[in-house]
Structures are given as structure tokens and as C-alpha cells.
Amino acid sequence: MLGAVFREWLSWVYPFVCELCGRGGLDGCHVCPECRERFVPIEPPCCAVCGEPAEGSFIPSGLCARCAETAPSFEEARAAYVNEGALRELLLAFKYAGAVHLAGTFARMMAEAVRGNPHWFGGKKRLLVPVPMHRRKLVRRGYNQAQELAARRGYNQAQELAALLGRELGWPCAGVLKRLPDRLPQASLARKQRLRHARRIYAADEKRIKRHPVAGRDVLLVDDVFTTGATADACAHLLLRAGAASVCVLTLARTHHAWHG
After folding, report:
1. Which is it for strands 218-226 and 202-204: parallel, antiparallel or unpaired?
2. pLDDT in tens, 19-42
3. How does the average pLDDT of the chain come out, rounded?
4. Global pTM?
5. Do the Cβ atoms of 52 and 228 come closer than 8 Å?
6. Torsion sign over Cα 31, 33, 35, 40
7. What are phi and psi of 166, to 5 degrees?
8. How far apart are CA 79 and CA 102, in angstroms?
9. What share of the chain is helix, strand, coil (3-state, %, to 5)?
10. CB-based burial label for 210 (10 Å; 0-12, 13-18, 19+)
């Protein structure tokens, strides 16, 4: 992994340099084909609802133990890769170290996954809705002045990811959810605690919903990583209450065996 300062310098001087090995001359992407081969794709068999990869060669019921016990609010969640290794490092840099230039690369990878799996999400064109992040949290996460300035201007990694994904797929995008102020980091919570907590910290943005109605629309919730599913479940619940016909979830990566944490 390139050093943070060197990485940012390269991103400005040479716009398309591999984030992992430094190879230049890439076509609109920050990860070269060789480094991308290190990413672990999510492959079937998977849970029909949350997309969790199966332990064995098949899932007799079609559902993982978690979804069989309690169905989430969303109909289907899919991710392109397992959140581990080099990809996990890139996602951490994107979320916490100011590597905002990776949004376009991630959006392209997610679009490729959607195009390569036309059966996902009922094969429907959907309204993209990003998972929201509270602005104060964005500022606290910033490790450099550029990131903090972007946060104060309302920069949201998921919003940018969803907008760029919309351009790639030709699908509309609307930020109709908001995150409320919160001091408790979800990473410190077990899954059941996350489920309860997530229902309290997300809300529908009524003003934006009036401008971009979701009633009767098929929605695709967009985020970078699917961990326990608590956030996706809470946001899907809000969108259904706002009248969405259906809600599915797309992330670049997902944490394997998330229900054990």
C-alpha cells in the first residue's frame, strides 16, 4: 500500500496510477488489472436475500441462518467482493484517510458487477439512494485539510459513490435519507445492538423526498461495505415507510460471516 502523502501526490500529478503498486497509464481507474486479481469475488452459492457466501457447496433453503430466522427489510443485498486484504485497505483509505479519488474506481467496479449479473435486483432499473453519513462525523474522520474541507462542504463518500454509479449505469440518484448526530461508533456494537441502534440514527429527509419522491419506485440502497446488515435494514425500513415499492442493496464489498460479530 502506498504511503498516504505519496498516494495523494500521485493522484494529482498522475490521475490514473494504481493505488496499490504505483503502475501508471491506467484508463480511468486507480487499480491495475494485476492488482485487481488479488480481490476475492463473491461467487455463488450465496444467501438469496443478504448475499452471504455459503459455508458448503449449497444452501438447501436458499437462505443463511440469519435471514431464515429474521427476514430483513430489504429484498436482496449483493456485493462484488469480500472485504479483505488489499481491497479492505483501499476502502479504509477511502473512508478514513481522504482517498476520495477512489470513488470513481469503486463505482466502475460496482457497475461492472451489476452488468455482469443482470438477474440481480429483479433485473430492474432502480433509483439509487446512498446510505447517509452525518456531517460532523465526516469532519472527525478527516485526516487532512482537504478531507475536512470536503466534509464541511457536505461531502459524503456514499453520496459520491452513488452519483458516480448512477452515471455508469444511467440510473437516477437521490439522497433522501439522513443520519442524525450520534456519538456511539457502530463498530463497537454486536449485531443485535447495531440493529436497535441503527433504527434510531437514520431518518427520512422529508424535504428531499418531496423533491425526489420514492413512492412506488424500486430503490437500490448504495454503500461501500455490507457488514452486519443493520444499517441496510434500517435504511430499507425507512424507504419502505416512505412508499418505496421495493428496496435492494448494493455494496462494493461485504464482510464474511458478519452475523458472528
Report:
1. unpaired
2. 999 888 788 889 999 999 999 999
3. 83
4. 0.84
5. no
6. positive
7. -60, -40
8. 17
9. 45, 15, 40
10. exposed
In order of 65, 97, 129, 257, the CA distances from 158 in angstroms are 29, 15, 9, 23
User: Tens digit of pLDDT for each residue in 168-213?
Assistant: 999 999 999 999 876 555 555 556 666 677 778 899 999 999 999 9
Residue the block writes with cell 440518484: 173
In Å, how far are 3, 142, 196, 214, 252 from 201, measured between CA atoms? 34, 21, 9, 20, 23
Task: Give the Cα separation of 162 and 249 in Å (integer).
Answer: 12
31 touches 21 (CB < 8 A): no
Are 209 and 242 in contact, with CB atoms under 8 Å apart?
Answer: yes
Contact between 24 and 17 under an 8 Å Cβ cutoff? The reply is yes
* Strands 218-226, 246-254: pairing kind: parallel
Residue 223 CA: distances (Å) to CA of 95, 132, 180: 11, 9, 17
With residue 253 as reference, give the H or E element that holds it: strand 246-254
d(CA 231, CA 193): 11
Q: For residues 178 and 205, is the Cβ–Cβ distance under 8 A?
A: yes
